[in-house]
Amino acid sequence: MKIENLAIIFIIIILPISVILSNYTRNQTKTLGLQILYDSKLSSATADALKAFQLNTINNDTSDLSNSKLRDIEASANTFFNSVASHFNMSGYNQNILSDYVPALVYTMYDGYYIYSPYTNTLDDTNENEVIINEQTGETTLKSDAEILHQGNPEATYKQGEKLSGLKPYIYYSCRYQLGVNHDFVITYSLDNYITIQGKVNGQWVLDHGYLLDNITINGNEVKYRGIRINENDQVEENIYHPTTNRIQSHRYIKLNGVKYYQDTDGSWFSLLGGEKYKQEQFNPTTTPAIEYYKEAYDFTQRMLKQTYTNSNGEVKQDGYNLSGLSSNDAVDEKGNKTLNSFGRTPYLIFDHQNKSLEDPDSNFNQQRLDVIRYAIEKNLSIAIANYNNYSGVTANFQMPKLKEDEWDKIVNNVSIISFLQGLNIGGKIYNGYAIVNNNKNGEVVSEDSIYMITKDGQYHRASDNDLVGNNDIKEGILNIDFERKSVMRNDTKHYFFPKTELGCYTSIVTQTNVNESNNLYQYMQEKGGKLAQSYFTALGRERYGMYKTNHDPEKLKAKFGVST
User: Comparing 185 with 6, which gets the higher pLDDT?
Assistant: First the structure.
């Protein structure tokens, strides 16, 4: 056979294959480009939602209250769907279409999380919730929700079996532990080292809460943490829009359970709600929140780990729980089955702090905290996404994607939003994407890197700024959200102001090129010492003590600081 014939045969065979491969490569490239584009759009929409939540919590005086927090999250979810529609509209998808492809939104909060997803409304047909009185006979009739909101009632707000989308009940980062017959309790973890314990301990019912910290020494009024003395005279000020003078003025304040109390020019104290001034008849603080934070953390830690201990006031107590031997292998589910073994870790003592401090990032306690948070989110989120197949009305198979380890690290340590977008056809494949966005500038949690340091030159810096080491010009540490612009409505006019007027250090706040990348700020501060460590640990204690906690008794807390009730 002539070589010309072989060449023709070769072309006949190879040319179709080349065309097919070329089309396949072009389609794959297009699909990959669409996937990257959709990932970017989903990430942007999720960031918009988190920014909306952040702004609402910063500017809302009642954002620590549960009903207000629900409003903030609902508004954030609406922002997400509006942003998704805006970003994807150029791709031919509108909000109504896209909402069918979002199986869940997850909002990780301080000690639990919300899942925004569809659910079936089920009215209560057993509890009698309304009393109907016959005006003529005086007889009463009891009706249930199902009767009041009957399908045929045109005034009914809800319908039985109606499919709705919204926030499901709050789920705590909780884990149950069993040790024999005398210990059966639940520990609720948080995004820092604050825990709540509830249940049977040593055969007795217990409900207790507090921060777990070691390395605290107390000698009278002197409190030291990691060898650094806490400033017992800690006083901080910030600017507010004063409702009486209608001017921006600086006032000293103390924050208790999420509420800031300001000292007026005449020495009296007041709080603000919705821009209105509420005077406190009696307020004579004799201590500082920073000191109380470390004292209470000392007492709680001693109580958790020992049976007999000496508290911060020098009193010998015998009401401890003696849980130093609690193991990760003691974790069980509601049926008593072991729960956390799925992570494949060798059992360890949760509260062991011989080699690592309890609050260190790589401590046993922190490992258990992260495992519990991850398990709680993963379990319920998988169910929510799987159940979405019954609601969506589309042919896509919704399922929980496998998140990477570094993504879980972001989720379990910060307030975050996790969004899912699945089932969209992008040519060569079905798009199943998710986005995780978090930040530490919110009123939900005070993380280790939430504290900024103010220097006398009128700048604020990250606590790990290299220029702060050995710097005696440090004034104080302040929570990072206090440098964000706030707004208040007065006489139908919105007024803007900055609580703190210092400017951010460019290499520390903006470029972050002069910041130490230590992942353990506790140890970093202990090693650097000096004014930096004292200001940092004092500010961290002050801000954490002032956070809103659902299990705090506000009246007892205010009475402790001399606030009239």
Answer: 185
